[in-house]
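Entry 14. Ran structure prediction on the chain below.
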Amino acid sequence: MHAEVSTNVFRETFQPVMVFDGEAHIDITADAVTIHATDEARAAWVDIHMPHSAFEFLQAGDTPASTALDVNGLLDVHDIPSVDTITMAIPTTNEVQITAKQLLYRTGTIREVNVPEIWLRTEPGTAVDITTSPAMLSKVIDLAVDMTDRVEFGTTSTERLAYIAGTGDTDDVRVDVPLSNTCEVPESRVEESYSLTYLDPIQQRIPADTPVRLQWGPGSPLRVEYPIAAGHATVTYTIRPNA
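Output, structure tokens:
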């Protein structure tokens, strides 16, 4: 693979991966690059889909390939100087090479992998679908971390409203958000809670000026989705309800 991408897009792409320790998996096809990372317990994970349009240049082989690299090896690379274009390559030496002007960063050796199906294909229930701002999500999470270890996502039974709430022993915080136009009003309240262990670092990495789509259902994972790279790429976090 050989790719060229702007510094801003590069940072937007790898910021979400920093939520997790361990390995990041990269799927490469002729049309897109998809990055996956998860926590060790596989209770939460992220998928970052970058089609051809997200790159200034992308050249990949005709045969799809999957590789893995150490997320911690990306930390120094993430702090590279701002330049117009960053070049990423996976040469025959089996290491991801990232070049910014005349500086060469090696993120470590890679190997062929089979991405665990459990990371990627568990879909949330479609009972609730809302779009909100990062500020609204952060408002609840920033206050909830001092009260509790979980945040509840739910709906009212009579109005086209969903809510995000944190409840402590003496205090609570809640915001109401309209349901998406395509989401039918559930016949009964739809409630599920998710761990702040994952929600807090996730919300800290969402760009302030981008819409956030939230989907969940009873007993189903929470999906947190937002665009990056000027809308050319998508970040999707998934958190299990029993995490």
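The longest helix spans residues 134-144. Will compare against last week's run tomorrow.
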